[in-house]
Design a protein that fits this description.
Elements: H1 4-15, H2 21-29, E1 37-40, H3 55-65, E2 71-75, H4 83-95, E3 101-103, H5 110-120, E4 129-131, H6 139-148, E5 157-159, H7 171-182, E6 188-190, H8 198-208, E7 216-218, H9 226-238, E8 244-246, H10 253-264, E9 273-275, H11 283-295, E10 301-303, H12 311-323, E11 333-338, E12 341-346, H13 371-376
Parallel strand pairs: 1-2, 2-3, 3-4, 4-5, 5-6, 6-7, 7-8, 8-9, 9-10
Antiparallel strand pairs: 11-12
Protein name: Leucine-rich repeat-containing protein 34
Keywords: Repeat
C-alpha cells in the first residue's frame, strides 16, 4: 500500500471524483508522521485556502481511511456534509477501529445522518469522542443516541447541543436520564441550547445521583432557573464525581447561586470549574460563591462575567485574586481601580472560548481560553 496521499488519489480516480485540493494538502502534511494523526479539515479555517468537504469528499475519505490505522482523529467541522456524507462516515467507523474521535459540528446532517451514527454505535467499540452539535438533529435522533448509549462502552464524550426540538415535554431529557442510570463509561455530556427547563434538569439529576463516572456536564444556553440549580446542588452535595459544570447563559439568579454555594462549601464537593456568565446573579449570589471558594479549595475555575458586578462583588473577587486563591488565568474577570473604587473587566477566558472558532494569530489551544481541555485531559486532537 502506498502513502495515504496516493491512496486518496487512487480512490478519487476509481470513483471518478474530483480531487479536493484542501484534503490533498492536509494529507500531504501527514506524510512521514508516526503515531496518532488528526486530519483537521475544518471548513472555517481562516489561515489557509479552504475547499469545503462535500458528501462526495466524505465518500472518498471513507474509502481512503478504511484500512488506515494511523489516523485517530477526524475534524470535519463546518463543512457541507449532509445525511448522505454522514452515512459514508458511519460506514467507515463500522470497519475502522483506529478512529477515536469525530467532530462534525455545524454540518447539517439532520435526523437521517444522526440515525446513521446511532446505528454505527451499535457496532463500533472504539470511538471515544463524537461531536454532532449544531447539526440539526431532531427528537428522534437524540432519543436514538440516548438508547444506543445504554449499551455502548467506548464513548467518553458526546456533544449533541443545539438540536431542533419542537416539543416541550422534555422527552429527550427523560431518555438521557435513563441512559445515565445505566451508562457508567461516559465522562462528558454536552447538552447546550436544548431548551431544557428545570423539569428536564430534575430528571437528569435524579440519574446523576447514582452515576459515578460523568465528570463534565454542559447545560449552557438553556432555561435553567433557581429550581434547576437547587437540583444540581443536591448532586454536588451527595455525589463527588462531577468536576465541571457549565451553566452559562441561563437564569439561576441569586437563589440559584446560593444553592450552589452551599454545596461548593462542603468538603464532599469535588467541583473544579463552574461557569455561570449571564445568569442575572447579583451581589448576594456572587459574594456567597466567593465565600464558598474560601471554604473549599477544590474549586479552581469560576467564570462570572455578564452578571451584576456591583461593588461588593468586585471587592470579593479582587480579594480572591490578590490572595492567590483564584488565579487570573482561571477566571474571566480582572481588577482595575477608578478613583479608589474597585471594578472588574472582562478577559477572554473560559471553558471553551475557542469552540466555534480559532484565532487567526497566537496560541490556538490557550489553556486560559479553553480550560476544559486542561481540566478533563481527554481531548484527542488539537483544537
Amino acid at each position: 500500500m502506498g502513502s495515504i496521499t496516493d491512496v486518496y488519489s487512487s480512490v478519487c480516480k476509481e470513483l471518478k471524483l474530483r480531487t479536493n485540493r484542501y484534503i490533498l494538502e492536509v494529507l500531504q502534511e501527514t506524510e512521514g508522521k508516526t503515531g496518532d494523526i488528526t486530519l483537521k479539515l475544518t471548513g472555517n479555517d481562516r489561515l489557509r485556502k479552504v475547499e469545503q468537504v462535500t458528501n462526495k469528499d466524505a465518500l472518498a475519505l471513507s474509502r481512503t481511511l478504511r484500512d488506515n490505522d494511523s489516523v485517530t482523529g477526524l475534524d470535519l467541522r463546518y463543512n457541507c456534509i449532509t445525511d448522505e456524507g454522514a452515512g459514508h462516515l458511519a460506514d467507515l467507523l463500522k470497519s475502522n477501529d483506529a478512529l477515536l474521535s469525530l467532530r462534525l459540528t455545524g454540518n447539517k446532517i439532520g435526523n437521517g445522518g444522526a440515525m446513521h451514527f446511532a446505528s454505527m454505535l451499535q457496532v463500533n467499540s472504539t470511538l471515544q469522542e463524537l461531536d454532532v452539535a449544531d447539526s440539526d438533529l431532531g427528537t428522534q435522533s437524540v432519543i436514538a443516541f440516548a438508547i444506543v448509549l445504554n449499551n455502548n462502552k467506548s464513548l467518553r464524550s458526546v456533544n449533541i447541543s443545539r438540536p431542533l426540538l419542537f416539543s416541550h415535554q422534555e422527552e429527550t431529557a427523560v431518555h438521557l436520564s435513563g441512559m445515565l442510570v445505566v451508562n457508567q463509561c461516559l465522562r462528558e455530556l454536552h447538552l447546550g441550547k436544548m431548551g431544557m427547563t428545570d423539569c428536564g434538569v430534575e430528571r437528569l439529576t435524579d440519574a446523576l445521583r447514582t452515576n459515578y463516572t460523568l465528570k463534565y456536564l454542559d447545560l449552557r444556553c438553556n432555561h435553567v432557573t433557581r429550581d434547576g440549580a437547587r437540583c444540581l446542588a443536591k448532586v454536588l452535595k451527595n455525589n463527588g464525581t462531577l468536576e465541571i459544570l457549565d451553566l452559562a447563559f441561563n437564569r439561576i439568579e441569586d437563589d440559584g447561586a446560593l444553592y450552589l454555594s452551599q454545596a461548593i462549601a462542603l468538603p464532599t464537593c469535588n467541583l473544579k470549574a463552574l461557569s455561570i456568565p449571564s445568569n442575572n446573579i447579583a451581589t448576594v449570589g456572587l459574594v456567597s460563591l466567593s465565600r464558598a471558594m474560601q471554604a473549599n479549595n477544590t474549586l479552581t475555575h469560576i467564570y462570572i462575567w455578564g452578571n451584576r458586578l456591583e461593588e461588593p462583588v468586585c471587592q470579593a473577587f479582587s480579594d480572591l485574586l490578590s490572595s492567590g486563591r483564584l488565579s487570573s488565568e482561571q477566571t474571566d474577570v480582572c481588577v482595575y481601580e477608578v478613583d479608589g473604587c474597585v471594578c472588574l473587566a472582562e478577559v477572554f477566558h473560559g471553558l471553551k472560548r475557542h469552540y466555534y472558532w480559532t484565532p487567526s494569530y497566537g496560541q490556538d489551544v490557550n489553556p486560559a481560553s479553553n480550560a476544559a481541555v486542561t481540566l478533563t485531559n481527554t481531548q484527542l486532537y488539537p483544537n
